[in-house]
Design goal:
The protein has about 500 residues and is an alpha/beta fold. The protein contains 16 helices and 20 strands. The chain folds into 2 domains: about 230 residues, P-loop containing nucleotide triphosphate hydrolases (Rossmann fold, 3-Layer(aba) Sandwich); about 230 residues, Rossmann fold (3-Layer(aba) Sandwich), CATH 3.40.50.300. Helix 4 packs parallel to helix 5 and helix 12 crosses helix 13. The relative contact order is 0.12.
């Protein structure tokens, strides 16, 4: 897409200095321009939603700001003073999706990392004072938890608030929140956004990177859109509606046009998998049937064991009671919930990541694999899923989050599965990629696959599924046709 760059919006009243000014920031990798002259003025007291398709340059921009990458040219100014990056500044914090917390340490220890410890006598740590400081930090984000509890024992929403509290305790007044709410339920996301709004009211600069339009409309003052490394929009939220923002993200395509491609006319066939009072140590009784040509969706609250159902269906969770009935000949493919840690091999190429689960289909004599056949299959799948960059020799680890998800989905589809299990399939992906995933699932259904979708995103269920149910600590509800269940009913039940 050829988009005309926009000029940086002035920050604050005439004569006021922006908290952060970027001027013509550029960055290329191996001759490929990733940032094409980004100019932005950002000031304290505002929340800026940074949006754009996967691979648009959002993560690269943040990595340039935090000093991970050195910009090729351009200028960065903080409070009117030029700096090479924002690295090492106590008034700046970057909160990424993984949060950077140490799971085996307590909340107190995580909050106090990087700060001088409170001492009692010489080198002895004053644990009482450390705890009091932790409680004060948690109070700043309205979080009431025992500071002695381990991070691993906290639910995702509370972990995110701990990460924000740590940033504030270190003195941050400029927060860059990169997809930190993508793993959260709607209720948890609302709690985090409420805290960010309070911080902005107190004068902090907040930049949130997100694909969730609802989050931007909920809390942001401005929407900044990058497409192909260019700044194509920098607009006040009061001047935008959903359709206008979507058009900036999708260029010449419309959201409605993308949605039409998800319609499916598949016929429902015999059952592929049946759960009969199936239990693990993390979930109650699961009773569920998934048939060929249909997609059954499940959602649930944090702590309900929602993802455990997907792992159980794929044979990755131990059964403690009941039964999971599935024919031994059934091919099952899983798209796991955590693509960074469970989904791919960062140092291997896209081709190897995508082909690794279907090597048997390309075996020739003596167990050898046909390289030509493998490359042809992978390139065809990468083209169908619009993986960017196009080269299948690109390392998996350098891909954007949405393109990693496409590769993992492509790997599952290359196994020609009878049962496709999708766990949070659209987490952290842009609108276009979401629509491509929906189309791909519709094609799999039409080809006769059974699909189990486990997602905390209600849009996934509405777009992909024929029947939907809810997972609670007690077990699963009986999935009902999606036309009989409204979003309000789901939220009330949860």
């Amino acid at each position: 897409m050829d988009a005309a760059p926009v000029e940086a919006r002035p920050a604050g009243p005439p004569g006021a200095l922006p908290s952060l000014r970027l001027t013509d920031v550029r960055k290329s990798f191996s001759g490929n321009a990733v940032l094409r002259g980004i100019s932005l003025n950002l000031r304290g007291g505002e929340i800026v939603g940074l949006m754009g398709p996967n691979g648009a340059g959002k993560s690269t921009l943040l990595k340039v700001l935090d000093g991970f990458h050195r910009m090729d040219s351009g200028r960065i100014e903080v409070d009117g003073v030029q700096v090479p990056s924002l690295a090492g500044r106590s008034d700046v914090a970057f909160i990424h999706q993984d949060l950077g917390l140490v799971e085996d340490l307590s909340v107190t220890d995580n909050l106090r990392l990087g700060q001088p410890w409170a001492s009692r006598f010489g080198p002895m740590i004053d644990r009482d004072r450390e705890r009091d400081m932790a409680v004060a930090a948690l109070r700043a984000v309205r979080l009431e938890v025992d500071p002695a509890v381990l991070i691993r024992d906290l639910p995702p929403g509370e972990r995110t608030l701990v990460a924000i509290a740590r940033a504030l305790a270190l003195g941050a007044t400029k927060l860059f929140v990169d997809e930190a709410t993508s793993n959260l339920t709607k209720a948890d996301s609302f709690s985090v956004l409420a805290v960010l709004k309070e911080l902005a009211l107190d004068g902090a600069l907040i930049v949130i990177v997100t694909h969730k339009l609802s989050e931007v409309f909920e809390c942001a003052h401005r929407a900044v859109v990058l497409v192909d490394g260019e700044l194509v929009a920098d607009d006040l939220m009061r001047d935008l509606d959903r359709a206008a923002l979507v058009s900036k993200l999708l260029a010449h395509e419309t959201e409605a046009g993308l949605a039409l491609a998800t319609e499916s006319t598949s016929e429902v066939g015999p059952e592929v998998i049946r759960f009969v009072n199936a239990r693990t140590c993390k979930i109650g009784a699961v009773n569920l049937v998934v048939r060929r040509g249909e997609a059954v969706g499940l959602t649930g609250t944090a702590g309900s064991g929602l993802h455990e159902v997907a792992l159980l269906a794929a044979g990755h969770a131990p059964l403690t009671a009941g039964a999971v009935e599935v024919d031994r000949a059934v091919r099952i493919a899983l798209v796991p919930p955590q693509r960074e840690t469970q989904g791919g091999f960062p140092a291997l190429a896209v081709a190897q990541n995508m082909a690794i689960s279907s090597l048997r289909r390309r075996r020739i004599l003596a167990g050898l694999v046909s390289g030509a056949r493998e490359r042809a299959d992978v390139e065809q799948m990468a083209d169908e899923l619009s993986v960017v960059p196009r080269s299948v020799t690109t390392e998996f680890g350098v891909l954007s989050g949405g393109n990693k998800q496409k590769v993992i989905l492509g790997r599952a589809l290359l196994t020609d599965p009878d049962l496709l299990v999708l766990c949070e399939p659209t987490r952290g992906v842009d609108i276009r990629t979401r629509a491509e995933i929906y189309r791909t699932v519709a094609k799999a259904k039409a080809a006769g696959a059974a699909v189990l979708v486990v997602s905390s995103d209600y849009e996934d269920l509405a777009a992909m599924c024929d029947r939907v149910g809810v997972v609670t600590a007690e077990g699963t509800s009986d999935p009902r046709p999606k036309d009989e269940v409204s979003l309000d009913q789901f939220e009330e039940y949860l």
